[in-house]
Amino acid sequence: MSVGRTLFAATLAGTLALAVSPASSQTLRYANQGDLKSLDPYTLNESTTHAHLGHVYQGLTARDKDLKIIPALAESWETPEPTRWRFHLRKGVKFHNGDPFTADDVVFSADRVRKKGSNMQTRLAPDVKVVKVDDYTVDFVLPSPNPILHNAWDVWYIMDKKWAEENNVVDPTPVAATTPSYASLHENGTGPFIIESHQPGVKTVFKANPNYWGKVEGNLKEIIFTPISSDATRVAALLSGEVDVIEPVPIQDISRVDSSPNAQVLKGPELRTIFIGFDQMRDELLYSNIKGKNPFKDIKVREAFYKAIDIELIKTRVMRGLATPSALMIAPELFILSKEFTRPKFDPDGAKKLLTEAGYPEGFEVTMDCPNDRYVNDAAICQAVVGMLARIGVKINLLAQPKAQYFAKVLKQGGYQTSFYMLGWTPSTMDSHNVLFDIMGCRDDAKSSRGEANLGGYCNKEFDAITDKVLVETDTAKRNQLIKQAYEIGNKDWSYIPLHQQALAWGVSKKVNLPQRADNLVMFHWATKKE
């Protein structure tokens, strides 16, 4: 055996020693390229984190396998008037520590999710009043109608007011926090699983909740989650049977997994859009050799960057066909008029000319922030972008980091410390308003949650005015036309560079039946495992 293979085997053995314990057929062992850094459900608005915590926490609503909104901690709801939603809470539900679930917990969670430090502030607008009617009824009073108020509430998880107060976690834990809070390391939800132990970066063990109020479709009694960042180690663990599910499967290993006797790849379209953004707010970029001005404030520079990127090459070479190039910041499945938009053609000569016209004939230098353990081939996509922009004279200094460090740097609590970045976004409402408001809306850190995930500070007031109309418009045809107008403005501004919707790729043991959802939330309470 070569030295390289010896080291690989040692690394694999060491990693799996952390993941594996004696397991029955009802124990599912799961590995992801990223980690579960915090158990505080308001720390990070990120789908993998939502999926993990969705086994222990629950919202007033949930989504079924087809992403339809269904009751969860709320049994039913109605709108007795256009600006008032009334939610009737489920009785007899207890948190994992035995505390009863009541309206007080909903009111508390509504306050907490909107506090400074929360990365989930857009789940509930600051001007919505949350009123306890009685112990099992809560009203949400709005300043104006909102037909999609509850569309994103399946991952607005309700917390125990009493538990939070007793453990000094009334305030949410910021993603950039250097010291973990009690809520970061412990949970107290109402869901079908309880976290027995949590070692960030090492292992998290979930046990079935014996007192769960609902019915569980699956047969799992235990889930053992281990982060395995190495693609090769993660695939080897699946093929050897040491783990039952991995996410994602590297594109280059899909055929290998599919041809194995004991595992397969679940593939399907995903709703997440991968895109590139620019700092368009600062007068001088934080990470560039251009001093005294910001090149990205020039629309010609943004257009040049867009046209310099060969999206078909990324699709064929980097993603090996498992991507759908996008002309919009939303998946076509989520906007019926998306077919009316066409992506501009790759034009490096035109891009070079635009840079010259903008005053950068020799290009310039800028740092690109990129996660390297979050999306399918994320680092490889960024590397490809580096090479493409080099052809027009732009030198990209690539800073690719694990998602924990990446998000701590670029999100709101990190101070939006980025000049040029790649990000992925699945609209939590499954609706364009989420994209128009969260990602593309003018950022107002002091007064509103608008633009909370707008890392680069793109801003167009006309765009925002249309977005506000989208929120309250109840006529579907009129609403779609408003959404179309907003996207047209964003595209005309070259506000972002949408790349593609990537494909889902989960590696699953043939002993496991695991339904797949297009939002990439892995829901193990639906899973069954056989001997």
Average pLDDT:
92
Structural class: alpha+beta
DSSP E strands, number: 19
Shape: globular
Q: Give the CATH topology of the largest domain.
A: D-Maltodextrin-Binding Protein, domain 2
Name the CATH homologous superfamily of the largest domain. Periplasmic binding protein-like II
Query: How many separate helices?
Result: 15
Alpha-carbon distance between the termini?
Answer: 34 Å
**Biggest pleated-sheet summary:** 9 strands, mixed
Strand content: 15-25%
* Rg over CA atoms: 23 Å
Low-confidence stretches: 1-22
State the helicity in percent bands: 25-40%
CATH architecture annotation of the largest domain: 3-Layer(aba) Sandwich
Output the CATH class name of the largest domain: Alpha Beta
The total domain count is 2
GO molecular function, one term: peptide transmembrane transporter activity
Protein name: ABC transporter substrate-binding protein
Domain Solute-binding protein family: 68-444
Pfam families: SBP_bac_5
Explain what this protein looks like in three dimensions.
The structure is a single chain. It is built from 15 helices and 19 strands. With 531 residues, it is α+β, with helices and mostly antiparallel strands. The protein folds into 2 domains: 27-244 and 511-529, Periplasmic binding protein-like II (D-Maltodextrin-Binding Protein, domain 2, 3-Layer(aba) Sandwich), CATH 3.40.190; 270-504, Dipeptide-binding Protein, domain 3. Helix 8 packs antiparallel against helix 10 and helix 14 (461-472) runs antiparallel to helix 15 (476-492). It is globular. It is found in: Periplasm. This is ABC transporter substrate-binding protein. InterPro entries: Peptide/Ni-bd, SBP_5, SBP_5_dom.
